[in-house]
Amino acid sequence: MSAQTLIKKSPAESGSRSPINTSQLVAGIALCALLAVAAILLGRLDWLSHHGLSALTVAIVLGIAVGNSAYSKIAIQCAPGVMFSKQMLLRAGVVLYGLRLTLQDIGHVGITGVAIDAVVLTSTFGLAYILGTRLFKLDRTTAILIGAGSSICGAAAVMATEPVVKAHAEKVTVAVSTVLVFGTLAIFLYPALFELNQHWKFLPQGAHAFGIYAGSTIHEVAQVVAAARSVDADAANTAVIAKMVRVMMLAPFLIILSAWMSRQNRNASVDASPNGKTSIAVPWFAFVFIGVVLLNSLSILPQIVVDAAIDLDTLLLAMAMAALGLTTHVSAIRKAGVRPLLLAAILFGWLICGGALINSGVTQLLR
User: Fold this and answer.
1) Contact, 325 vs 63, CB < 8 A?
2) CA-to-CA distance for 245 and 216, rounded, in angstroms?
3) pLDDT (tens digit per residue) in 272-293
4) Percent above pLDDT 90 for the chain
5) Is the pTM of this model over 0.85?
6) 279 alpha-carbon distance from chain centroid
7) Three-state DSSP string of the chain
8) What digits encode the pLDDT tens for the residues 179-229?
């Protein structure tokens, strides 16, 4: 499907029903690129990097700021390119994210680390869905997005899940905001937890074990680095590897989620065809993501190529985040109320306390 066809399907989101031309596409992409480059440069500032605020986080903040001010004057001229960045460039960014991972990462944390990540992911997402839809009466999409962000890899997981659930920009932004709030809080809380663990021993002792705990329970990669680095280098290295293994689970998560949602829609007779069958919206980029991880695991690509591709990936994801911010209205976020934040707060508490129990229990079981 071409970018032109994809964009024409969303005239309401693009803000215009006028014919799309190349200049509109280029203008929107250029605007997203400008905001992304600014976010990347700001993300390199010592204060922001120390507090775990990555380029992706900065990009969505800049996008929201521009989207709720000056963007309204040029929305018609830029909307097609912004939509292209939010949809197609996002998928490309998720695919290239695989170059940050290798199968060898699994060996560094062992079967124990993999099992911990898997249990944390499934329990956190299940809790998010049940509490979100039943206790807080949130719509299914919002609960899924918050659950994905909390259980896997923060904003990147939210953005990768968006095409599967076909969420509106405001719901995605609400989910990303919860990651920002509680992930940032984790940066300051986890070093204190490490000190408490020296006395209370609620986790296996040592920086290595604490690194697995941090990597399996903190939202964003940047936040994991910032929190674990405050402990020591060994904890930081182990935490990043445990986090990367958790990120690797994003692809099977998206595939399973797509199949599950298709079954739910079929049972509810939503979008069913006359013969009663409902097609599965296969997240093709998840399969390509797995392929890129496998390719990177073979170590056949020159390091200079991998480094350049990772830089490009950061740019693409930042552009997608900027586009999301541009299409997000602050009024819609306010309308969402405190319920998404309360759900995210409970999940944060579960990641800390339940994550500690999972880390301790799985370690003892597989010892």
Assistant:
1) yes
2) 9
3) 444 545 444 556 777 888 899 8
4) 41
5) no
6) 25
7) CCHHHHHHCCHHHHCCCCCCCHHHHHHHHHHHHHHHHHHHHHHCCHHHHHCCCCHHHHHHHHHHHHHCCHHHHCHHHHHHHHHHHHHHHHHHHHHHHHHHCCCHHHHHHHHHHHHHHHHHHHHHHHHHHHHHHHHCCCCHHHHHHHHHHHHHHCHHHHHHHHHHHCCCHHHHHHHHHHHHHHHHHHHHHHHHHHHHHHHHCCCCCCHHHHHHHHHHHCCCHHHHHHHHHCCCHHHHHHHHHHHHHHHHCHHHHHHHHHHHHHHHHHHCCCCCCCCCCCCCCCCHHHHHHHHHHHHHHCCCCCHHHHHHHHHHHHHHHHHHHHHHHHCCCHHHHHHHCCHHHHHHHHHHHHHHHHHHHHHHHHHHHHC
8) 888 988 898 899 899 988 888 888 877 888 899 999 999 998 878 888 887
Residues 316, 96 contacting (CB under 8 angstroms): yes
**Domain range summary for the chain, segments of one domain joined by +:** 19-269+278-366
